[in-house]
Amino acid sequence: MSVFAKKLVLVLSIAAIGLTGCTKKPVRPDPSSTSMGDGAYGKNNGGDTMNPTDYGDLNDPLFISDDMGFETRNGVYEDADVIRGLLEPVYFDFDKSGINASERVKLDAAILYLNENPSQSLLLEGHCDWRGTSDYNLGLGDRRAGAAREYLEIAGLAASRIETASKGDLESIENGDDSQMSQDRRVELVILK
After folding, report:
1. Is residue 7 part of a domain?
2. Quick check: helix, strand or coil at residue 13?
3. Burial of 134 by CB count in 10 Å (0-12 exposed, 13-18 middle, 19+ buried)?
4. Suppose 90 and one of 53, 111, 172, 187 were both cysteines; which one would form an S-S bond, judging by CB atoms 3.0 to 4.6 Å apart?
5. Contact 17, 88 (CB under 8 A)
6. Domain contains 101
7. Which of helix, strand or coil describes residue 150?
8. Is 74 a residue whose pLDDT tops 90?
9. H or E element: which one contains 92?
10. Is position 130 within any domain?
11. pTM beyond 0.85, yes or no
């Protein structure tokens, strides 16, 4: 191979690497076509304004305290550090990490809650159903939590108030039916005190 041919191969290789390494900036959708449109945070698909206090009063005496310091009522668990179940989980389609429009209202409710409780932050726990390898499911759970984080940040929630974690399929029902598996594909919205 001649020196010219070697140089040509080298130049073409560098150009190919440079072109494949570049990524385009993502195109943002028109806000009016999303649930975020026109400042509609906190509006559900029916157009009613959601109020985080609709979830109930955590100071309600109907809370039951257990031996481990958790208080529970209607699926809400609270201890000195976290509140679980106050905000609804965001559900995902099989093997997907994109957030469906119908699920975005739950993230909008989280924004409202955090705006009213500025000393608290949010942990986004990504979960998967039992299918797939443990490593794959940990990655998918991470992508799901990351998608929720991105949505919240674009909506204006400070990145410093959001943490993510992936539990993959650790809490899934092994050999579950379709209904059970659909409940395993989620991001839990855990309030951090």
Report:
1. no
2. helix
3. exposed
4. 187
5. no
6. yes
7. helix
8. no
9. none
10. yes
11. no
